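Throughout our pipeline, every protein is held as a single compact record rather than as scattered files. Nothing more is needed to write down the fold, since each code stands for a local backbone conformation. The record that follows is passed on verbatim for readers who wish to inspect the format.
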Amino acid sequence: MSKQVAYLGPKGTYAEKAAHILSKLANFQTPIFVPCNGLYSVIKSLAYNNCDAAVVPIENSVEGGVTSTLDALWKFPEIFINKAIVLPIKHALISDGELSIISEVLSHPQALAQCSEWLSENLPNAISLPTNSTSEAVNMVKGSKFRAAIGSKSLIQIEGLKELAFPINDVSGNCTRFVLLSKESNSKLANIASFAFSLISNKPGALLKAINHIANFGFNMSKIESRPSKRELGEYIIYIDLEINDQNNIENLFELKNKLKPLCKNFVDFGNYFSENVELD
């Protein structure tokens, strides 16, 4: 039976590329790819059993954590990360018009942020307009001479537009980590473990005590990030990624989590998984 894989659509986004790569790595046979409108809709479709798996961006090397993804993972603790890939991101400015007359630039908020310096230098008077995806932005500029979109070069062929500039991202090493989500957890083979927690007490040293447990077990944190709980001012959720290797294995990770949980008001385990770098053609 084919698995349905939701991703941030429409077609042509980096998320679609990631969905194809991650589905292949997961050995999905003839997967059916389902584009969704908005990151929350992608994860909600998995949470409500409308698909078998979902692919979403979780972290960018320039802009940090993708907050919509992090918030949704906290909200739906029955969802786990199974695999991850890191894709290089190279944005193009795409339009029907000419660079000299562009007055509006459309794209996903992350893409706009990743190209903010280039836009400031080359289109200082243009208005930035956020869209649900880079692909949606490119579709919205068709037929307009004064609008341009930021997106993948592959969208130029799909929509029949032209490239005004490439690459325009501010950092040449710009990359995004995409994750494959499902309701099945992997507990054995992994090089990253991800989880989040909120603390019982908001007192001096409370977070340090939790971090010390991680240090005492010898784990290296490849990420630590905080997000507001959205319940009250000053209450935060701490998101952590740990590196797993021969010295810091799954058994030690299990013991660490047992040490951390008594300190936490809520603890959500996102799973253990392999993350690898992938080069695009």
Notes: The domain at 4-89+174-182 is CATH 3.40.190.10 (D-Maltodextrin-Binding Protein; domain 2).
